[in-house]
Specification:
alpha+beta, five-stranded antiparallel β-sheet, 31% helix, globular
């Protein structure tokens, strides 16, 4: 997974916005257990599903990108939660244990 700096992530978001694309940012807001990325880790996503950054080291990025594209379309932010107690965790690959909460919002 791409461990881009905050500066790189913000620059990519701005470049996509300047190109007329819808953009969302996903940010880790809470972790428990063996979550591979710390609170504050970010992922920037454009309306086509391109992304830069990491919120989980590859465990849930695909699911977060899918949700982010929906957030771009609707404009409604959402909180995502993945963990071993959540049946979604096994589907997206967060079987290493722990939980992760990711806030996804559209960039205006």
């Amino acid at each position: 997974m791409d461990l881009a700096s905050d500066t790189d992530i913000l620059a990519r978001a701005e470049a996509w916005r300047e190109a007329g694309k819808g953009v969302a940012i996903a940010t880790v807001v809470e972790t428990w257990g063996s979550a591979p990325r710390p609170v504050g880790s970010s992922l920037v996503i454009d309306e086509d599903g391109n992304f830069l950054g990491s919120v989980s080291g590859g465990c849930v990025e695909g699911a977060v990108v899918t949700e982010a594209v929906d957030v771009i379309g609707s404009g409604e932010p959402r909180m995502l939660e993945f963990g071993v107690a959540d049946e979604t965790a096994w589907r997206v690959g967060l079987s290493c244990g722990g939980t992760i909460r990711v806030y996804v919002e559209k960039v205006d």
